[in-house]
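Thread: Newbie trying to understand structure tokens

Hi all, I'm a second-year student working on a class project, and my supervisor (Dr. K.) asked me to get a predicted structure for one chain before our next meeting. I've only ever worked with sequences, so writing a 3D structure as a token string is new to me. If someone could post the tokens and maybe explain what I'm looking at, I'd be very grateful. Here's the chain:
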Amino acid sequence: MTLLAPLFLVGLGALMVPVLVHLIHKHQKEALLFPSLMFIQRIPYKDVRRQQLRHKFLFALRCLALLLIAFAFARPFVQNSAPATVFDDGGREVVILVDQSHSMQYGDRWDRAVEQAHAAVDALGPADRGTVVFFAERAQAVGQSTTDIAVLKSGIDAAKPTAGATRFGPALQLAGRVLSESEQPHLEVVIISDFQRSGWDRMSDVRLPSGTTVTPIDLADGDVANVSVAFVSVRQGAESGQERATVSARVVNGGADAVEGVPVVLVLNGQEVQRQSVNLAPHGSEAVTFAPVLLPQGLSRGAVRAGTDALPEDNQFRFVLTPSNSLSALILEGSSARQNQSLYLRRALAIGDRPSFRVDVRPLRQFRLSDLDGRAIVVLNEAPFPTGQAGSRIREFVQEGGGLLIALGEANGPGAWPAEIADMIPGTVGERVDPSRGPTALATLEYGSPVFDVFSAPRSGDFGSAKFFRYRRLSLPDQGSVLARFSDGQPALVEHAVGDGLVLVWTSTLDTYWNDLALQPVYLPFVHRMVRHLSGYEEVRTAFMVGEVVELTDDSPDPLLRALLRSGEELVVQAPSGARQVIAPGGAQQVVELRESGFFEIRQLEGGSIPPTVVAANLDPRESDLSRLDLAEFLGSVVPFETAGGGAARARELTLEERERRQRLWWYLLVAALFILLAETALSNRLSRVA
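---
Reply by user tm_fold:
Sure, no problem. This is what the structure looks like when written as tokens:
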């Protein structure tokens, strides 16, 4: 006798309960009425009889029931009652994996996959159990471990290829779980797929149970021709007051033969706008850039299409263009500003892309309250913080979510920050510092900040080569707000939150007067990152991949989606196939899962004045790579090499769990304990009445 879970025998300690019940229980005597005993002398009486067990048979029943329950939970089984091995001359547990990814739509692959799946189901014998698993990036079982052939066949007939990418891992994990729970003596997996190389991660640790027979059915067609549009980038900007977009695409040849004269077409709102042609080398790619196009008002649906072949869906890449979300910046200079003091800053922002920047420069004395309308940030470029209505308007602008960049520099010393406006700057401004040992440098950067995160990778920008000849001392009560420091430890860039807005303080200048940072390659991205961070800018994605999720939040960078969500009305999401999903305001389901390729439209359910927004979903570019796996390497990595591809070992060792599961002694022990407890209850009631 062997126990699968011997720790449950600790429960035998419960046998003390009946002992205590029988020893502590006091027998109650019936009181008898008697005439007055006042004239009889009281004699003390002591009961010296020892406690003894009464109703020993009842006691034995209770102990036996607890003993059986403890042994049932310990899962006992007899080692010699079942053979140590099982042979494959009995029933089979067969898991049929059917690739449902988009590449199965190439030519007639899906039709052949359905035929092979039906043939595998027809091969099941009366003692066999079968499961059909359809998989792409996920896996789903039909008729798990069933003998009902009709259920399996109906599931095969109802299935269709999806827009998902091939992933073998989830399917093999599901198959392994079904096989490990099976009691059948023979385990088998049939994989029906085109075996794309991109669908298998060689580093994944997916193993099928020992002794499993794996039968691959390869539906690939050898070397195939497939042209695809792998990626599209869009650069938007305003020119002469008109919105323009420059579209670039990468066209890929997945075949082994060169392809010449492939037409590449730019389509905007259903109309062909431009056309080019490219020549593609075997397994090569080419970049195509179209001339800038004038964008109409509002949202536009675009696509780049290239050639035709047996897998048409990846011959186009869809994208969505929203009106340019350019950022407007106002640069204010002090009365003693140098000539071209803001030249470097203005030119750096003028060539900005994603987003573009609109920049105005004016003296502080010419500042009007209306100048802040529509602005994203304000720059005090060596200008003191204004007082009166101007200062109150800038303070209000920041508190409501605007950004303020302060360059202390030459003219922005301690006198520029009186006590009533001290809350707009994170510390106390001091005198200028001239390093006595020569120029200093930026030595410490906070790479976790959005200002510097793009510079964290190797060779992404060198701030150490910039020389700083002077800077303004800034004493801080909170050192945690420092984003950059000089080599002597003094703050260079400090962050400060004011209401819903943000203030950045640069303790040097933004031109070449106190440093030469403006001459370094990092200056332009540094300035762009500061302005983006101050404005809270997030780029609106032009395209997504199938399988991604779009979060519906009222702070989305998409202005149309923000307006729809803030309307407080029910929204409807219409997929390319016409399927609809209703989004309740404030409901739990606040995401859109992109399960199809095409345009998803999000609009108000009952109409409304807010225009709909659109999300473009495209195939995973890896699904266009039809190159095949090395089957021997693949099969050898999921099962022992000698069992992969057929001819599993005729016998395999039964595990302890399998032996115990075959006997199920625990079930009989629990039934016996139940009958004993019922008998104990009846006997206990009878004895209590007799007593």
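A couple of things are worth pointing out once you decode it. The domain at 327-535 is CATH 3.40.50.880 (Rossmann fold). DSSP finds twelve helices and 34 strands in the chain. Feel free to ask follow-ups in this thread.
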